[in-house]
Amino acid sequence: MAKDNYGAESLTVLEGLDAVRKRPGMYIGTTDSQGLMHCLWEIIDNAVDEALAGACNHIIVTLHDDGSVEVADNGRGIPVDVEPKTKLTGVEVVLTKLHAGAKFGNSSYGASGGLHGVGSSVVNALSSRLDVEVDRDGKTHHMAFHQGHPGVYSDVDPEHPSPDSPFKKTRKNRPTELEIIGKVSPKTTGTRIRYWADPEIFNDTAEFSYDQLIDRVRQTSFLVPGLKITVIDENIPETGDESIDEMLEVDDNVIEQVTEENTSAETDDIGTSADILQEDSAEADESAESQENDAATQSQETVSQPVQPKYPHARVEEFCHTGGVKDFVDFLSKGEAVSDIWRIAGEDTYVEETQAVGDDGELHAQKVTRDCAVDIAMRWTNGYDTTMRSFVNVVETPGGGMHVDGFLQGITKQVRKAIEVAAINIIMDHGGLTRQQKDEIGDIYTKMQSNKDPVQNYYYDDLFHNAIMEAAGNKRLIEISNRMRLQISRARWLNFVLPERMGDAEKEHEKIQQALMKGDREACVESMSEHLNRSEQNFQKVLSSPEYAPQFAMAMSYISSLSRKNREK
User: Fold this and answer.
1) pLDDT tens for residues 163-180?
2) Facing residues of 134 across strands?
């Protein structure tokens, strides 16, 4: 039973990031392995946003042997000047306030992870310790936090910071001064964030997934062409052998560029290594003169028994791809390629009503013109499995969305047109329809013309187009057509629920039927293409016009029932 004395004194006021620690699931979903990895994505995405903004080309993710994770980028660096409203430095605002980052403005909307947005402060709140270093204005700035609160740690060994070191929290409502810990070139900028996930927040079963990290990093390298991402696992000892320590998944042109840039700096090391190799080779030659047979035997044994890696992955893994989604499709392709990789790209603008922050700090609705770019790559292989990945900026959308639906509709339209035309060409190549096929298609056409019931006309339209596929006799075309039936059902159904479209469709079917009967290839292909194009135009008209909402709802209900019946079968 609720207490009668429930009043304002019963409310708990949470300050700063206390609300995040109180209900972490509201911000990262879960406090198990998924939530643990979510924190890492937030920090990495901020660095990726700098790359999307054109300010960063290299991100380094370091897994330290003390369990902490560090993400470094050579972007612009978190602002170090004082934010006028809070009187705090940009670093403290970013890491302690649930603020609206740059992506909520009207000028910088292209990034997805926040441009040092709200995610960083959430990760800070859920970390037992977080250190940030910013290279900007010729200096390296530093600030440390304990469970989201700024302050100063007294580390016994500054080279090995620890969340267990004594910590002095900054007094309430006082700004924390940025510590200057070094100097850099005035042109050097970037951000390094290192954090220790708080065991008080995450479950005992929460585990860090290296495989998930690599998958995400590889994926990002495809989606942001030219961005190099390096993952260093300090839990694996360094051997000095690059063939063991490093795994490079980078384009050849990137390797050549890096090699040219580092040649002068690495000349001495390379020369020393070469000298050592020459000395070893001379000693081996001398030994080989007296023990030639034994050396040959040992060489054969070495070749037949390759050294097995001690660890599941290399200490350093680096990714950089320049081909974008085309390279991604090549990576995802399984089986033998049937086609080359097709790439479709374009851009346009659209107007969106969104919330904007006014000069008074209040939110208000505002129409903003956005830029939209679409980049699609695809390939057909000889397999039957389909792999589709969709992203909004660099954020994966496994559930699809309207952009996926639109893509599927577009590709379905084009594939349907291609197979229908292919069927007509096959029929004409074999001398046209047989007598039996003419009678069958003619009978279906007659029933379609004489029947004004939308459901019945939908049914006969399906039979009409399927009869053309069957007349072609190509099993592959028939299989593709059958697979597409349900996908094109919405467009086909809407041709018969709108009276004005129903009459036009009858005329179009008449032209197709007459051309088939005459064996006129050109007229038949032209009539079929015209019919399919007008059907698609009608479908788009219905989708964009609110006045057709009842008809569209009827179509969707009918198609859902068809889909359910198919599943039951």
Assistant:
1) 999 999 998 878 899 999
2) 141, 191
